[in-house]
Design a protein that fits this description.
The chain has helices at about 1-30, 35-40, 45-55, 60-75, 85-120, 125-140, 145-160, 170-175, 185-190, 195-230, 235-240, 245-260, 260-285, 290-300, 305-330. By secondary structure, the protein is mostly helical. It starts with a helix and ends in a 7-residue tail after the last helix.
Length: about 350
């Protein structure tokens, strides 16, 4: 097991380093001058040249990459060109809101997707199976921004049931100010017992969480169906049937339990994908997360911020996959032999 964990950790480090180098190189060949963007439209050539030296842009690319890596290891991810603040501080300020949205979306996806997959597997070939498969395909194939616009049009502009902008009603900052603990509205409201903000935050989170969770719901439902059907046809599951257990027990207690390992891996991948997928959703719902920060960084050719965001996403992907591999090895020791 120790050798397995060391192999996974080593490969994870190599992947992160490769992603950062590739992103750094791509950001350097994109047309534009980060020093000019930092200095502003009325800057003189002398000031642009001074800023270029200050940012280290006059150094050879290998030196810039080494400087960036050294800074990453020491907690210095560079300085954002459009905010003039440390990139790591900007990311840490925006990350809690995005994580809140992803966790809410994946929670809905698990609550809905797992039962749908079980129902589809239990009544394979019947109308309910075809309905669940159609819903899964729709959830996977529909673009997130399009679904966000539809929900916004229906539930906000037409029915006036749910709000669509921000984490919670900004007027509550005066009547019920929220104490910042984690940086995410719902956990902070729960921890501080701020019930007005909690109710508003839940209402504001509903629509974007549904959009974020739609893709995950389709993937989880399809994966649960496929793996439960595969396990249900194996010899040991047939033996359970022969012992007199009901079909409900066979699918719910035995087949689903044995099918959880690949489903767990898919959930981990969907988590990392959903963190990126929130960028467009946050733009539609004016959510104060990484999406707004990424849009500003790209529009202003903010190389340090773009590289920092890419490093964060790569780190999330690698860490989540490594944790899933270790969890699978603990659940099934045969995994550690590969």
């Amino acid at each position: 097991m120790k050798a397995f964990i060391l192999r996974r950790t080593g490969s994870a480090i190599v992947v992160v380093l490769g992603v950062v180098v590739l992103t750094f190189m791509i950001a350097r060949v994109i047309p534009g001058d980060p020093a000019s963007a930092w200095a502003g439209p009325k800057a003189t050539p002398a000031s642009v040249e001074a800023i270029s030296r200050q940012l280290g842009l006059d150094q050879p690319v290998p030196v810039q990459i080494w400087t960036f890596f050294s800074g990453v290891l020491s907690g210095d991810w560079g300085t954002s060109i459009h905010t003039h603040q440390p990139v790591l501080d900007d990311i840490l300020n925006c990350l809690p809101a995005s994580l809140e949205l992803v966790v809410a979306g994946l929670t809905l996806a698990l609550i809905i997707g797992v039962p749908l997959g079980l129902i589809s597997a239990r009544w394979r070939g019947r109308w309910v199976d075809h309905l669940v498969r159609a819903i899964s395909v729709l959830g996977v194939s529909m673009p997130a921004f399009w679904l966000a616009l539809i929900l916004r049009q229906v539930f906000f502009q037409k029915l006036h049931w749910l709000p669509v902008a921000g984490e919670y009603d900004p007027d509550l900052q005066y009547s019920s100010p929220l104490a910042k603990v984690t940086g995410a509205a719902i956990p902070d409201a729960l921890l501080s017992g701020n019930w007005p903000v909690l109710g508003s935050a839940l209402a504001h989170t509903t629509l974007p969480a549904v959009v974020v969770g739609s893709y995950a719901t389709g993937v989880i439902a399809r994966m649960v169906r496929a793996n439960v059907l595969e396990v249900a046809g194996e010899t040991h599951t047939q033996m359970v049937r022969s012992l007199g257990f009901s079909e409900r027990a066979v699918f719910g207690r035995f087949a689903l339990r044995l099918a959880w390992s690949p489903v767990l891996q898919v959930v981990a991948l969907v988590f990392a994908y959903s963190l990126v997928n929130t960028f467009l959703v946050e733009s539609v719902f004016n959510w104060p997360g990484l999406g707004s920060y990424a849009a500003q960084s790209i529009s202003s050719l903010d190389t340090p911020a773009i590289t920092g965001l890419t490093l964060l996403i790569a780190f999330v992907y690698v860490v989540v996959n490594a944790l899933v591999d270790v969890a699978q090895a603990l659940l099934d020791p045969r995994v550690g032999l590969r």
